[in-house]
Give the backbone structure.
Amino acid sequence: MPPCLIFEVFSLFPEVFAPYLQTSILQRARQRELLQVNLYNVRDWTTDRHHTTDDEPFGGGGGMVMKPEPIFAAIEAVLGSPPTCPVILLDPQGRTFTQDIARELAGEVGVPDVEPRRLALLCGRYEGIDERVRRLVSEEISIGDYVLTGGELPALVVIDALARLIPGVLGDPDGAEDDSHASGLLEYPHYTRPAEFRGWRVPEILVSGDHAKVARWRREQALLRTLQRRPDLLERARLQGRLTAKDLKFLASMPEEIENSTAGGKHET
């Protein structure tokens, strides 16, 4: 049986991926052949004895720029010309990565009788890539408005986020939908044993055995936490129709929290 999701990763430092891919959920997903990650060193497609992959920018300026020749050669050797799957450049100029984009990129991953989802990830380095490389690229993704050394960490973020969407990867089949941002809200508070620690007790509702009340409490706590910490997410969820009539009624009963969230205040649950 083929894997559900295949990543073709092009990097100057593919060795940085191994420790993370050989750990925890991603390791189990690969062992169960649900996920496949193929790593390629762009240096292997250089033609000079120094394996040069970067050069000074035309027009002057600081930093070095990744050369187009080895990138084109690597991607076309593996994926064909034109590439037979989407090529995603991890780049600060791209769309900011979100859970919705993760779902979009994953497509119908894991659906029976659907071909495995195959995506190529290109990791930039140095000052950036030669602009002509963008002709190979079908999508550009950024993981946030800050500066990193290269695209390897963003690539791992994308791999991790998409792998969690493969049916069977997580032990809890509903786990991916409960995570923060998966439903458009921040996640509700979690507790485990002991029931009392340094005088702080677990909310009684969680040990009541009433699963319906527990589910409602968790939903309300997710709404409250999102209202207090990320009101922008709550407004987006409202506009997208993700809030039920019960959700809206609960929020309407929280006038103080609403006032503080719009004023920039913050409360702890």
Observations:
- The radius of gyration is 23 Å.
- DSSP finds ten helices and ten strands in the chain.
- The beta strands are 5-11, 35-41, 54-55, 65-66, 87-96, 117-123, 128-129, 139-142, 196-197, 200-201.
